[in-house]
Structures are given as structure tokens and as C-alpha cells.
Amino acid sequence: MVRVREMGEADIEAVSTIRVRGWQAAYAGIVPPSHLDAMTVEDDAGRRRQWFSRPGRESRDLVAVGDRGPVGWVCFGPSRGDISGAGRVGEVHALYVAPDLIGTGIGRGLLAEAHAAMRDQGCAASALWVLQDNRRARRFYARAGYAADGATQEDVYDGVTLAELRYRREL
């Protein structure tokens, strides 16, 4: 049984573990191995502590908690980009599940909670960015009602440029 709750400062180490292991699993063969191998839970937790304690932070973090503690994490908030004509838009900034639990419904549960919270905040739509080559994530978001809206951006990892697609769905 997994329940979703607000993330607390005590969850930072577990969330960083989920995020780093999630990157290393999901982006193997997409992001250069040199970048993935250089990621550490300690570095991520340090950045997350700074971010988490930032005054005026508008994003929210939820964790899915099971018998072994946090097993999934979603971060969402106001859209960081301009999506003209869309009304108020929320954005899923990050969604990760412990790699050994992918496909068990934890990600769907976290996403549903984020959507409900965005609706409660008056958002009419939700957006997110996904690496073009991350086919598994693109299928997951398509099943959740998202579709590419034509916007793209590029990120560079250790000299390799990767395309991201913006996905959007009505709430």
C-alpha cells in the first residue's frame, strides 16, 4: 500500500536517491554515460536542501510512501514558460519512481495528485517537458492524456545536445 503526502525536509535524501537512480535507469542510452555516472545522491541532496528551503518557492513536492519509505516523487508548480491562450497553466517539473517499482501505478497516483492540486490552484492545463528519445516516458504521459504541443527546447549534457518536447493536457 502506497500513500501520497507532502514532502518534508526529512525526505530529501530518499527523494535524491529516487531521482538519481531514476535518471540513471531512465536515461541510460539517451544521456551520455559520463553525465549519469557523475551523478551522486549526496550532490543532489545538497542542491535539493537549498531549493527546498528557498523562501517564496512556488513549487510543491509530494512523495509516495510505502513500507520502505518514499518510493516516488513529483514536483509541480506554475508553468515556467509562456503558453499563450491557455489560461493558467501548471507544470510538472519532475516525476520519478524507484526504478524497481516502475509500472506499479505509483507514477499514475502521483500525477493524479499533482493534477488535482493544480486544478485546486485554478489551473486549466498542465504542461511538462520530456526528452524526445525517452519513449517510455512519452508513452506514460500519452496514456495520462498528454500530447506534444509543438514546443521544443534543447539541453546539453557533456557536449551532447538532446531535444525535449513540451507535452500538455487539459485539467
The SSE string, one letter per element, is EHHHEEEHEHEE
Q: Which bin fits the share of residues in helices?
A: 25-40%
Could you describe the largest sheet, including whether it forms a barrel?
A: 7 strands, mixed
In total, the number of domains comes to 1
**CATH-defined topology:** Aminopeptidase
The spatial strand order of the largest sheet comes to: 1-2-3-4-5-7-6
Work out the helix count.
5
The overall average pLDDT, rounded, is: 94
CATH top level is Alpha Beta
| Rg of Cα set | 16 Å
Properties at a glance:
seven-stranded mixed sheet, 171 residues, alpha+beta, globular, Aminopeptidase, 5 helices
Explain this structure to me?
With 171 residues, this protein is an alpha+beta fold. The protein has one domain (3-125): Gcn5-related N-acetyltransferase (GNAT) (Aminopeptidase, 3-Layer(aba) Sandwich), CATH 3.40.630.30. It is built from 5 helices and 7 strands, in the order βαααβββαβαββ. It has helices at residues 12-26, 33-38, 41-52, 106-120, 135-143; strands at 3-6, 60-66, 69-78, 89-97, 125-131, 147-157, 160-170. A 7-stranded mixed sheet has the order 1-2-3-4-5-7-6. A hairpin with a 2-residue loop joins strand 6 and strand 7 (160-170). Helix 1 crosses helix 3. It is globular and about 40 Å long. The protein starts with a strand and ends with a strand.
